[in-house]
Structure formats: structure tokens, C-alpha cells
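Table 4 source record.
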Amino acid sequence: MKKFSVLRRETKRVSFLIGAVMVFMLFSLPLHAGAGKDKAAAASKEVVVWTYDSFNSEWGPGPEASKVFEAQTGIKIRWVSHGDAGEVLSRLLLEGPNADADIILGLDQNMAERALSSGLLEAYRPAGAEKLLPEIKDYVRNDWRLIPFDYSYFAFVYDSEIFSNPPKSLEDLTLPLYARKIILMDPRTSSPGLGFFGWVREIYGERWQDYWKRLSPSVLTISEGWSSGYGLFTAGEAPLVLSYTTSPGYHLEYEDTERYRAAIFDEGHPIQIELAGLLSRAKNRENAGKFLDFMLSSAFQSIIPLTNWMYPVIDIPLPSSFSINPKAQKALEPGAPSNEELNRWAALQAER
């Protein structure tokens, strides 16, 4: 009898549990459905932008751009950082059509061909495109699949307390005076590194490998990206670093010092134009279009100078700290290197 008593008790308990579960499911289904709708609604109010680390750092343009854009449109920006610009492009090419992004932001013209040939970008002509500076319009050569948002010129920034007479050419950098005093970036992962590779090849042509061999004793290190390389420079690890003509303005603005200067070379400086593009499989296409419109507005462009330390691509007043930034007398436009050339460069570095 005891067994049957236990069985009845268990049967009643199971019946009760089944009933409770059914009641729970009955009442929770609308809640789950509502949660799903809320999640979908939240997703429809965002745009996903892939970019490089420093763009969305606490000192970069990302946080302020998010605040202004959301205030204007109600749309949130979800930034996804992937190291330096070269790493952003590599990630995009790796994930292809499955890339969880609406916009890719931060490539430059040296990376443009690889991005365009992937077939992953869609043309979009943003509102305000007619306001682009004349010298920038020339770089829209791809039916608006890549859109300029800022620019500057590559240069070597030096510590004037160590060098009162800075280098005046690429060749000067090979002098014994600069032995282990220069910080560079890897052209395979960094857009400044790629720009410097093109700079060398533009000046030396087929003799570019010989130049790298002569330059090698001057190089302290080659970092993966600009942020880590410039951080070593400001920490005093070396008095010369590959950067931009606009970098001295940062130190004047935030450190009230003119100690750090950009060396100007008579042979010219490569221009860098940063670009953004709409992915053809963007899930939030309408929101992405609104962001690209915003990107060429004065509201976004006015954020760029004091956060990304580049020039805006439309005509707006510049901060007074930009007065210290020298102008390159000659703008160079070296083409992008081939994979074979980058492999040869890597082999040279392995011999150091």
C-alpha cells in the first residue's frame, strides 16, 4: 500500500507541475514575444560601424559622434573596433558577406582597391557630398562606394628638445645620427605603415629595398599600429616617430607645448584620405545612410580636428592649435603596394 500511496502522491505532484508549467507558458509567451519585439525595435534603432581602435577610444571621435548622432536621429551607433585600419580590412575580407557590420570606417586610399575588388561595398552618395573640398573630390573614383571623411599628410614627428636640426629627407633618416631613434609601423597592419612603404617606393623606385637596408640601423622598433607606436614615442622610447603633419597640434592643444614638431621634407609627403563605405549586405541600411549623411555634415566634421587630429573634408573653421601644423609643400600619391612587395619587405625585416 505504501508504494501505491507514494505513486498517487507523485502522480498528483507531476500533474500539478505540468499544470503549473502550462500556466507559466501561457502567461510568459506574450512576454517573450514582447521581449523579442523590443529587441528587434532596439536593433532597428542602431547602426553597426567597424573601425580602428583609436577612432572609438575615449579620446577619439567615436564617443562624441555617437552622442551627437543619437541626439539628431535617435539612432545608436554600435562601434566595433578591430585594431588598426589594416586589421579592419583583413577582418572584413575574412568574414566577407557574413560580416556583422553596416559600415566600415577608417580605410584609406591605399587600401581602397582591395576593399572595392571584394564586391562587399555598395555605392551611396551622401547628402552634402557637393561640399567636399576640391582636393578631396578627386579621390572619389569609385562611384561613392568609399566616401572621404578626413585627411592629413604622413610625416615624421620629432622631439625638438633632442633634435634642434631635424631630418629634411628620407635619406637623412639613414644617417648614423638617428641610429635606433625611429619608430615605424608595419605596412601589413597599419595605414601609416602602408603609407610610409609607398612613400619610400615613390622616392626610390626599384631601389626601395636598398633604402630599407640602409634605414634598418635607424629603426628602434616597428609596431603593429599607430597607437602603440606613438605611445612609445610619447613615453620617450625614441625621439622620432612616423605620424602626421597634424600631430603637433594635439600637443599644443592638450599639453600646451610646442616641443613636438613635424619634419617637412622637400621631396614631399604622402596624403592620406580616410574613407568609409556601406556594406551591400547591411542589416540597418536606412540607418547606415543617415550616418553617412551625418558624416559629411558640419556637426561630424567639426569633431574630427580635436579628436582624430586630421583635417575635415569640408570647409569649416579649424582650431587655433592647428596653426602649429606645417603644410606639406608637395603632396605625393604613391600607389598601393602588391602582396609580393609586402612579402619582400617582411623578408627584409626578418634579416634585421
